[in-house]
Every structure is written in structure tokens, then in C-alpha cells.
Amino acid sequence: MQFQSILILTGAGISAESGVDTFRDVGGIWSKVRLEDVATPEGFARDPAMVHDFYNQRRAGLAGVKPNPAHHALARLEREFSGSVTVVTQNIDDLHERAGSRGVIHMHGELAKALCARCGTRGPSPDQLSTELACRQCGSLAGMRPDVVWFGEMPYHMDMIYDRLAAADLFVSIGTSGAVYPAAGFVEDARANGSRTLELNLEPSAGTMLFSEARHGPASRLVPDFVD
Length: 228
Ligand code: BV8
Prior knowledge:
- The chain is an alpha/beta fold and about 230 residues long.
- The chain has 2 domains: about 1-20 and about 65-110 and about 155-228, Rossmann fold; about 20-65 and about 110-150, SIR2/SIRT2 'Small Domain'.
- About 30% of the residues lie in helices and about 20% in strands.
- The strands form 2 sheets. The protein has a 6-stranded parallel beta sheet, with helices on both faces. The protein has a 3-stranded antiparallel beta sheet with strand order 5-4-6, with helices on one face.
- Helix 5 (about 70-80) packs parallel to helix 9.
- The two termini are about 15 Å apart.
- Ligand BV8 binds near residues 11, 12 and 92.
């Protein structure tokens, strides 16, 4: 079956073999820190220094990791596929970009960016964000935060994502547990649109039964095989 338009959703599992921690695997991020404390606006309001420390550590970790064959395979697909390819990622790392992917849609934001909650100015994040950093635009000290989407906040670019999802005739989900919405609901939107749906994941995700096909194993093997 020849596809014209592919939408690919990625999660933490695609970066796991690069050495980036996932969230819900054994020993994952949410087993070490409470998401309520570090990935909600309430947690940031309660203890901004703790939240800055959480993201500063993850930002620092990016210097020591690099894209793996799964990221490179998706970049190759974009270059070689005759139709359109859209990568939507839940990840806040920059490994897709470093592998050569272009136009990646970061629905949960990016570690490399900072946001002033007071005036909405967005810009490159310093290595270490802190409450001592004033916004260059409005000068507020109380506003600088990581430009990431926390629980209870609206993910970014949702209109564009749903438009691309509606136009896709193939939806591929890679390295995600299917635990977090609205991303976890994309497979149902794809099915409603009559798209083929494929899950590539280390193990069956929460929504694996919703996919027309599921292949399980490491992304560094499954994704290049899918692209070839
Ligand atoms: C919102 C922050 C609405 C950045 C994150 C129903 C509908 C809508 C919302 C909800 C709903 N039900 C509940 C909600 C609320 C909530 C939610 O989903 N809660 C869950 C816990 C039930 N959703 C939200 O709050 C979202 N906002 O819906 O807003 C709204 C409407 C109006 C007005 C305002 C708002 C916001 C969600 C974003 C939260 N932010 N992160 C950061 O710190 O990174 S989410 C967090 O989980 C991560 O960021 C990650 O992106 C996300 C998903 O995790 P995964 O990527 O899947 O990672 P995980 O570890 O879970 O799984 C890894 C998988 O990889 C595993 O399956 C594993 O087997 C596999 N794997 C491992 N190794 C490999 C591998 N696969 C292949 N190869 C390998 N080597």
C-alpha cells in the first residue's frame, strides 16, 4: 500500500537507547520524583528552585547524549519519502533535530527554550535557569520558566497536529506508553480518519489494541526496519 502522508508520534522510548531516561519504565523519572512537584504549574509555584533544578539537570544531560539509529532513520525517511512526513514529539530533547529532522513539532515544549510566564516572551534557555534570572523583555524576576508543557496545561500546536493527523494515511507511534493525553488519543483520531496505524514500541502500550499493527522491540532496530 503506497502512503502519501505519514504522521509520526514519538515518546521517551525513542530516546532511551541514546541514554535519555524514560518516565514510566522501571527506574524511570517518575519513580525518582513526583510529577506533581516538578511537572505542574502548582509545583512550580510551590517550589520554583526544585523545578528549575529538575529541568537544569535534564538539560545538562543532553550534552552527553546523541541521536540513535531510530532518530537517524526518521530523518532519512523525511529526505527520501516521496510524500509528506510530520514528526510530532512528546519529548523535550533535541535529538530529532540533531539527527537532521526538520519541522519537528514539540507538543510538550523544549528543554532548549525558556518562557517568561509574565509576558510570554520565549527564547533560548541558558544552561541553568533560575529564579534569579530576569526576563530580558519585561524585566520580571518571577516569570522565567522552562518552555515545557506541564500537566493541566494545553500542549502546543494542537490545531496543526490535528490538521496533519486528518491528512495522514499512516499514523506511526514510536516509544510511548500511551499514558498521557491528548497524545495517547491520536491513534483513535487516526482510526476515525481511516488511517492505517502502526505501533513501534519496546512492549505493548496502553493503547496497543487500537493499532492496526504493532511491532515490539527496541526502536533502534524497529524504526530503521520500518523506514527501509
Ligand atoms: C492537557 C512535561 C488539556 C515535559 C509532560 C484526557 C484528555 C485530555 C487530558 C487528560 C485526559 N486525561 C487526563 C488528562 C490530563 C493529563 C494526562 O494525560 N494525565 C495522565 C497522567 C492521565 N494531560 C495533560 O495534562 C496534558 N494537558 O490535556 O490539557 C487542557 C484543556 C484545556 C485547557 C488547558 C489544558 C498535558 C500533558 C503534558 C504533560 N507534560 N511532560 C517534561 O518534563 O518532559 S508528559 C510526560 O509524559 C513526558 O513529557 C512524556 O512526554 C509524556 C509521555 O510519556 P512517554 O513519552 O510515553 O514516556 P513513558 O516513559 O511513559 O513511556 C516510554 C515508552 O517507551 C514505554 O512504553 C516503553 O516500553 C518504551 N520504550 C522504552 N525503551 C524503548 C522503548 N520503545 C522502543 N525502544 C526502546 N529502546
